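Comment thread on ticket #2218

A.B. wrote:
> Attaching the input chain for the structure job we discussed in standup.
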Amino acid sequence: MQAAIGIDIGGTKIAGGLVDLAVGALIDQAELPTPRGLGADAILAAANDIAGRMHRSALAKGIATVGLGLGLPELVDLNGAPASGWIADWSRSDIAGALSSYGPIAVDSDVRVAALAELHFGHGKTLPSFVFVSVGTGLSFAGCSDGRIQRGANGFAIHFASSELVTFDEASGKRTDFLLESFASGLGMARVYKARTGRSATARDIVEGRAGAQGAQLLDEATTALASYLGQMINMIDPHGVVVGGGLGTAQPYFDRLRSEVPSYIWAEQCRELPVLASALGSAAGVIGAAALHARAKLERD
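C.D. wrote:
> Ran it. Output below, let me know if you need it in another format.
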């Protein structure tokens, strides 16, 4: 068996697992809350804790691991170096050194590692091209076609909702700036709900119907806004399908609303039946894909 350890760092939790790379299956798994606000070293310490558990599990099962893969909620360049500081400042942290006990270290953006798992072990087996959209604490995407992930010139092709969309009212000329990630992501929904009601609720509370009528209205607005962006993405890229992942995106009420709205924003009538699918790997996609970085050359066809 070829196995590796995968660690998926998210805005609210760090998930890790021991992964069978032949079939993309979790052999063991663990998670911890993300120590957000305490710096990169605290995050790496938590990741090391989980990796240690998975390493000991592998030893107990007689499984040799080929290394550790790490998915970060950051821009990661083509050399595997973090190039942003959304969740922490990585400029003074030695990622490889902090996790050196587990063999070679591979690092990539979290959405790309999830897309890698989907590409080889999920819907990528039947879709010649697809857009993988992660909806969690934040929003991000990865485009996949012909068996490969499109990384862009610098490795930064993961954003579609992190910069303002500017519009002007036709009659008054009034300018409106809209930032989708601050509205439709997990953090965004919680922030908007607090601003509107003065009460606190998590995105999970909103999605699961525990935030009252105002929460239900916000869920409808958030999924409609995201659907409009996905429709425009489909109009520009013309993929064979869209795969939605992330803890929020695969929550049934969020996903069902999103999927029902997307066709309204697809211009070409013959494309409105395009499949919008929940990730075949669910919440495990990031962990499996992080481990699969050690088999990337085989998983992404030349």
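A.B. wrote:
> Thanks. Noting for the ticket: The chain has a mean pLDDT of 93.
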